[in-house]
Amino acid sequence: MATHEFFVDMTCEGCSGAVTRVLKKIDVKFDIDLPNKKVFIESDKDKDVLLETLKKTGKTVTYIGTK
User: Fold this and answer.
1) pTM, entire model
2) Could you give the CA distance from residue 60 to residue 67 in angstroms, rounded to a whole number?
3) Which is nearest to 15 in space by CA: 65, 59, 67, 64?
4) How far apart are CA 16 and CA 10, in angstroms?
5) Is 55 helix (H, G, I), strand (E, B) or coil?
6) Are 10 and 16 in contact (CB under 8 A)?
7) Nearest alpha carbon to residue 54 among 20, 14, 3, 12
8) How wide is the angle at C-alpha 56 spanned by C-alphas 52 and 47, nearest 5°?
9) DSSP secondary-structure letter at 59?
10) How far apart are CA 4 and CA 37, in angstroms?
């Protein structure tokens, strides 16, 4: 299972809460690094599916790569 790293323009707990809500819906393991505005997702799902899911938060999202 790959760990995908994304930049998400989060500025507060509300932003990270939005990320948590959308990711819980697709049943993946994830970790949010709010100070560095990064989200790490452990999943076999395609990166494009994960990217589109994160974009549902309304935040600017950029795929960084796999770890």
Assistant:
1) 0.95
2) 21
3) 59
4) 6
5) helix
6) yes
7) 20
8) 20
9) S
10) 14
Place of tokens 């899911």: 53
The letter for the amino acid at 60 is T
The identity of residue 24, as a single letter, is: K
How far apart (Å, rounded) are the C-alpha atoms in residues 22 and 57? Answer: 7
Phi, psi of 64 (to 5 degrees): -95, -45
Specify the pLDDT at position 18: 98
What confidence tens digit (pLDDT) does each residue in 4-56 have?
999 999 999 999 999 999 999 999 999 999 999 999 999 999 999 999 999 99
3-state secondary structure of 10: coil
pLDDT tens-digit map of 52-64 = 999 999 999 999 9
Round to the nearest angstrom and report the end-to-end CA distance of the chain. 11
Read off the tokens for 27.
């049943």
